[in-house]
Amino acid sequence: MTMPKSLPYHPFKISNLKDPNYSAGYLSLIFDEEEEGDLETGIMRKVLRDVFEALGEPIMSAEDAKLHLEKLDVLLPQSGIATIYALANWLNALGLKLTVAVAEDEGEESGSVSAVELVEVAKV
């Protein structure tokens, strides 16, 4: 009896991330982890690179893609308000936007929808 071969995860993940709604949900989940302090160093870079691979590479030239990834490597180690705007611009080039949402109240069910878009970080 032979074991069935498994499919590599990365191509499957990238194919799902090609849907901008899936990418937005994926990033929201990762940002929530970051907020709680559970995110390991380097995970954010990997997640953003995966989203870029799915959404950015198909729409950018090789040179533009290289420059866009270099911008990511410059902005991630930074801190402060300028970093938020830089990340918003970086995501905007992929057709995504940063938003602010109401935090889930401890009294709510964990599966309930409580996120209400309040502010859109505009292009600077």
Structural notes for this entry:
The protein is mainly alpha-helical and 124 residues long. The protein has one domain (9-103, 113-120). Helices cover 52% and strands 6% of the residues. The chain has helices spanning 9-17, 20-35, 43-56, 62-75, 81-92, and strands at 99-101, 117-120. A two-stranded antiparallel sheet has the order 1-2. Helix 2 (20-35) runs antiparallel to helix 3, helix 3 (43-56) packs antiparallel against helix 4 and helix 4 runs antiparallel to helix 5 (81-92). The chain is globular and about 60 Å long. It starts with 8 loop residues before the first helix and ends with a strand.
Main features:
2 strands; mainly alpha; 124 residues; single chain
Number of distinct beta strands: 2
Strand content: 5-15%
User: What percentage of residues falls in helices of 4 or more residues?
Assistant: 40-55%
Note the gap between the termini.
60 Å
Average residue-wise pLDDT? 80
Low-pLDDT stretches are: 110-124
Overall shape: globular
The strands making up the biggest β-sheet line up spatially as: 1-2
The radius of gyration over CA amounts to: 17 Å
How many structural domains can be distinguished in the coordinates? 1
Please report the number of helical segments: 5
Report the biggest beta sheet as strand number plus sense, adding barrel if it closes.
Answer: 2 strands, antiparallel
Instruction: Please provide the ordered H/E string of secondary-structure elements.
Output: HHHHHEE
Structural class: mainly alpha
